[in-house]
Design goal:
The structure holds 2 protein chains of 2 kinds.
Chain A (H helix, E strand, L loop, with lengths): L4 E3 L2 E4 L5 E6 L6 E7 L6 E7 L2 E5 L7 E4 L6 E5 L8 E8 L8 E2 L3 E5 L1
Parallel strand pairs in A: 2-11
Antiparallel strand pairs in A: 1-3, 3-8, 4-5, 4-9, 5-6, 7-8, 9-10, 9-11
Chain B lengths: L3 E4 L2 E5 L4 E7 L7 E6 L6 E6 L5 E4 L2 E6 L4 E6 L8 E7 L9 E2 L3 E6 L1
Parallel strand pairs in B: 2-11
Antiparallel strand pairs in B: 1-3, 3-8, 4-5, 4-9, 6-7, 7-8, 9-10, 9-11
The chains are: A mainly beta, B mainly beta.
Chain lengths: 114, 113
Protein backbone atom coordinates (compact mmCIF):
# COMPACT_ATOMS: atom_id res chain seq x y z
CA UNK A 1 0.00 0.00 0.00
CA UNK A 2 1.59 3.28 -1.12
CA UNK A 3 -0.90 5.59 0.58
CA UNK A 4 -0.66 7.52 3.86
CA UNK A 5 -0.78 5.19 6.84
CA UNK A 6 -1.58 5.98 10.46
CA UNK A 7 -1.11 3.96 13.60
CA UNK A 8 -2.96 3.07 15.71
CA UNK A 9 -6.35 3.25 14.06
CA UNK A 10 -8.12 3.41 17.39
CA UNK A 11 -6.93 4.47 20.83
CA UNK A 12 -8.90 4.45 24.06
CA UNK A 13 -7.23 6.09 27.02
CA UNK A 14 -8.07 7.44 30.42
CA UNK A 15 -8.06 11.14 31.17
CA UNK A 16 -4.62 12.33 32.17
CA UNK A 17 -2.67 9.73 30.20
CA UNK A 18 -0.27 10.53 27.37
CA UNK A 19 -0.83 9.19 23.87
CA UNK A 20 1.28 9.19 20.73
CA UNK A 21 0.14 8.70 17.15
CA UNK A 22 2.27 7.95 14.12
CA UNK A 23 1.83 8.96 10.49
CA UNK A 24 3.78 7.56 7.55
CA UNK A 25 3.30 9.81 4.52
CA UNK A 26 3.66 8.85 0.89
CA UNK A 27 7.39 8.39 0.49
CA UNK A 28 8.26 11.22 -1.91
CA UNK A 29 5.97 13.78 -0.26
CA UNK A 30 7.83 16.57 1.52
CA UNK A 31 4.76 18.22 3.05
CA UNK A 32 2.90 16.71 6.00
CA UNK A 33 -0.19 18.04 7.76
CA UNK A 34 -2.10 17.05 10.87
CA UNK A 35 -5.82 17.76 11.20
CA UNK A 36 -8.40 17.02 13.88
CA UNK A 37 -11.97 16.07 13.09
CA UNK A 38 -14.77 15.92 15.64
CA UNK A 39 -18.04 14.17 14.99
CA UNK A 40 -20.18 15.91 12.40
CA UNK A 41 -17.57 18.55 11.59
CA UNK A 42 -14.99 19.14 8.92
CA UNK A 43 -11.33 18.52 9.69
CA UNK A 44 -9.48 21.42 11.33
CA UNK A 45 -5.83 22.17 10.66
CA UNK A 46 -3.42 21.51 13.52
CA UNK A 47 0.12 21.74 12.20
CA UNK A 48 2.29 21.59 9.08
CA UNK A 49 5.76 20.24 8.30
CA UNK A 50 7.89 20.87 5.28
CA UNK A 51 10.47 18.12 5.40
CA UNK A 52 11.57 18.09 9.06
CA UNK A 53 10.69 21.72 9.79
CA UNK A 54 7.47 22.51 11.61
CA UNK A 55 6.40 25.72 9.89
CA UNK A 56 2.96 26.40 11.27
CA UNK A 57 0.92 25.49 14.33
CA UNK A 58 -2.75 26.25 14.85
CA UNK A 59 -3.90 27.93 18.03
CA UNK A 60 -5.93 24.74 18.48
CA UNK A 61 -2.62 23.05 19.30
CA UNK A 62 -2.27 23.72 23.00
CA UNK A 63 1.00 23.22 24.87
CA UNK A 64 -0.14 19.67 25.69
CA UNK A 65 0.28 18.80 22.02
CA UNK A 66 3.62 18.28 20.32
CA UNK A 67 4.47 17.03 16.88
CA UNK A 68 7.72 15.96 15.29
CA UNK A 69 8.91 14.80 11.93
CA UNK A 70 12.48 13.55 12.38
CA UNK A 71 14.50 13.39 9.19
CA UNK A 72 11.50 14.51 7.20
CA UNK A 73 10.00 11.05 7.05
CA UNK A 74 7.29 9.79 9.42
CA UNK A 75 5.66 12.10 11.94
CA UNK A 76 4.40 11.68 15.48
CA UNK A 77 1.73 13.62 17.33
CA UNK A 78 1.80 13.40 21.11
CA UNK A 79 -0.91 14.56 23.46
CA UNK A 80 0.07 14.86 27.10
CA UNK A 81 -2.39 14.78 30.01
CA UNK A 82 -5.30 13.94 27.75
CA UNK A 83 -8.69 15.52 28.38
CA UNK A 84 -12.14 14.36 27.31
CA UNK A 85 -12.25 17.26 24.86
CA UNK A 86 -9.32 15.70 22.99
CA UNK A 87 -11.59 12.88 21.81
CA UNK A 88 -11.61 13.15 18.02
CA UNK A 89 -10.30 11.67 14.81
CA UNK A 90 -6.72 12.75 14.15
CA UNK A 91 -5.94 12.82 10.44
CA UNK A 92 -2.61 13.04 8.71
CA UNK A 93 -2.17 14.19 5.12
CA UNK A 94 0.80 14.55 2.82
CA UNK A 95 1.48 16.28 -0.45
CA UNK A 96 4.23 16.94 -2.96
CA UNK A 97 3.96 20.68 -2.47
CA UNK A 98 3.84 21.49 -6.15
CA UNK A 99 1.05 23.18 -8.07
CA UNK A 100 -1.86 20.77 -7.87
CA UNK A 101 -1.70 20.75 -4.11
CA UNK A 102 -3.55 17.48 -3.69
CA UNK A 103 -3.32 16.36 -0.11
CA UNK A 104 -3.67 12.63 0.39
CA UNK A 105 -5.26 11.75 3.71
CA UNK A 106 -4.63 8.74 5.87
CA UNK A 107 -7.43 6.73 7.50
CA UNK A 108 -7.05 8.59 10.78
CA UNK A 109 -6.60 7.63 14.42
CA UNK A 110 -9.80 7.66 16.45
CA UNK A 111 -9.01 8.80 20.01
CA UNK A 112 -11.46 8.26 22.82
CA UNK A 113 -10.62 9.76 26.22
CA UNK A 114 -12.63 8.28 29.07
CA UNK B 1 -15.06 32.43 12.35
CA UNK B 2 -16.08 30.00 9.66
CA UNK B 3 -14.00 30.80 6.61
CA UNK B 4 -15.81 28.34 4.35
CA UNK B 5 -19.58 28.04 4.61
CA UNK B 6 -21.48 25.09 3.20
CA UNK B 7 -25.11 24.15 2.67
CA UNK B 8 -27.21 22.13 3.00
CA UNK B 9 -26.13 20.23 6.08
CA UNK B 10 -27.85 17.13 4.75
CA UNK B 11 -29.34 16.13 1.43
CA UNK B 12 -31.53 13.26 0.27
CA UNK B 13 -31.67 12.62 -3.47
CA UNK B 14 -33.30 9.87 -5.46
CA UNK B 15 -31.16 7.63 -7.62
CA UNK B 16 -30.57 9.27 -10.96
CA UNK B 17 -31.21 12.77 -9.63
CA UNK B 18 -28.88 15.73 -9.33
CA UNK B 19 -27.21 16.53 -6.02
CA UNK B 20 -26.21 20.15 -5.50
CA UNK B 21 -24.05 21.44 -2.65
CA UNK B 22 -23.24 25.11 -2.27
CA UNK B 23 -20.30 26.83 -0.62
CA UNK B 24 -19.10 30.34 0.03
CA UNK B 25 -15.79 31.76 1.21
CA UNK B 26 -14.53 35.06 2.53
CA UNK B 27 -10.76 35.04 2.18
CA UNK B 28 -9.79 36.35 -1.26
CA UNK B 29 -6.30 34.88 -0.79
CA UNK B 30 -7.70 31.39 -1.35
CA UNK B 31 -6.40 30.07 -4.66
CA UNK B 32 -7.40 26.40 -4.67
CA UNK B 33 -10.85 24.94 -4.02
CA UNK B 34 -11.03 21.16 -3.57
CA UNK B 35 -14.00 18.99 -2.78
CA UNK B 36 -13.47 15.98 -0.57
CA UNK B 37 -15.61 12.87 -0.18
CA UNK B 38 -15.55 10.98 3.10
CA UNK B 39 -17.05 7.61 3.92
CA UNK B 40 -17.61 6.54 7.54
CA UNK B 41 -14.38 5.44 9.20
CA UNK B 42 -12.21 6.69 6.34
CA UNK B 43 -10.12 9.76 5.74
CA UNK B 44 -11.31 12.39 3.24
CA UNK B 45 -10.46 11.70 -0.40
CA UNK B 46 -10.08 14.35 -3.07
CA UNK B 47 -12.98 14.26 -5.51
CA UNK B 48 -12.41 17.25 -7.77
CA UNK B 49 -10.76 20.66 -7.45
CA UNK B 50 -10.75 24.01 -9.19
CA UNK B 51 -8.67 27.16 -9.31
CA UNK B 52 -10.30 30.63 -9.49
CA UNK B 53 -9.13 31.30 -13.04
CA UNK B 54 -11.82 28.97 -14.44
CA UNK B 55 -15.57 29.07 -13.93
CA UNK B 56 -16.36 25.41 -14.35
CA UNK B 57 -14.65 22.04 -14.19
CA UNK B 58 -16.21 18.72 -15.03
CA UNK B 59 -14.93 15.24 -14.27
CA UNK B 60 -17.32 12.47 -15.14
CA UNK B 61 -20.55 12.97 -13.20
CA UNK B 62 -19.03 15.66 -10.98
CA UNK B 63 -18.99 19.36 -11.89
CA UNK B 64 -17.70 22.36 -9.94
CA UNK B 65 -19.16 25.77 -10.77
CA UNK B 66 -17.12 28.73 -9.53
CA UNK B 67 -18.21 32.38 -9.21
CA UNK B 68 -15.19 34.43 -8.21
CA UNK B 69 -17.01 37.77 -7.89
CA UNK B 70 -19.63 36.27 -5.57
CA UNK B 71 -17.03 34.16 -3.76
CA UNK B 72 -19.22 31.10 -4.18
CA UNK B 73 -18.75 27.65 -5.64
CA UNK B 74 -20.86 24.56 -5.92
CA UNK B 75 -20.68 20.85 -6.61
CA UNK B 76 -23.16 19.15 -8.89
CA UNK B 77 -23.38 15.37 -8.93
CA UNK B 78 -25.27 14.19 -11.98
CA UNK B 79 -27.08 10.84 -12.13
CA UNK B 80 -26.56 10.36 -8.38
CA UNK B 81 -26.03 6.75 -7.30
CA UNK B 82 -26.42 5.01 -3.92
CA UNK B 83 -22.64 4.57 -3.89
CA UNK B 84 -22.33 8.38 -3.80
CA UNK B 85 -23.86 8.38 -0.29
CA UNK B 86 -21.15 9.98 1.82
CA UNK B 87 -20.20 13.25 3.48
CA UNK B 88 -18.92 15.93 1.12
CA UNK B 89 -16.69 18.77 2.20
CA UNK B 90 -15.94 21.86 0.20
CA UNK B 91 -12.64 23.40 1.09
CA UNK B 92 -10.17 26.12 0.23
CA UNK B 93 -6.47 26.73 0.58
CA UNK B 94 -3.88 29.37 -0.20
CA UNK B 95 -0.25 29.05 -1.18
CA UNK B 96 0.42 31.96 1.18
CA UNK B 97 -0.68 29.76 4.10
CA UNK B 98 1.30 26.63 3.25
CA UNK B 99 -1.71 25.24 1.36
CA UNK B 100 -3.33 24.11 4.58
CA UNK B 101 -6.88 23.09 3.80
CA UNK B 102 -9.77 24.97 5.37
CA UNK B 103 -12.81 22.70 5.31
CA UNK B 104 -16.47 23.56 5.28
CA UNK B 105 -18.72 21.85 7.83
CA UNK B 106 -19.80 19.12 5.43
CA UNK B 107 -22.94 17.84 3.71
CA UNK B 108 -24.25 14.38 4.40
CA UNK B 109 -25.63 13.01 1.12
CA UNK B 110 -27.99 10.06 0.99
CA UNK B 111 -28.97 8.70 -2.40
CA UNK B 112 -32.05 6.52 -2.14
CA UNK B 113 -33.06 3.89 -4.70
Amino acid sequence: DTGVSQDPRHKITKRGQNVTFRCDPISEHNRLYWYRQTLGQGPEFLTYFQNEAQLEKSRLLSDRFSAERPKGSFSTLEIQRTEQGDSAMYLCASSLGRRGNEQFFGPGTRLTVL
Amino acid sequence: QQQVKQSPQSLIVQKGGISIINCAYENTAFDYFPWYQQFPGKGPALLIAIRPDVSEKKEGRFTISFNKSAKQFSLHIMDSQPGDSATYFCAASSKTSYDKVIFGPGTSLSVIP
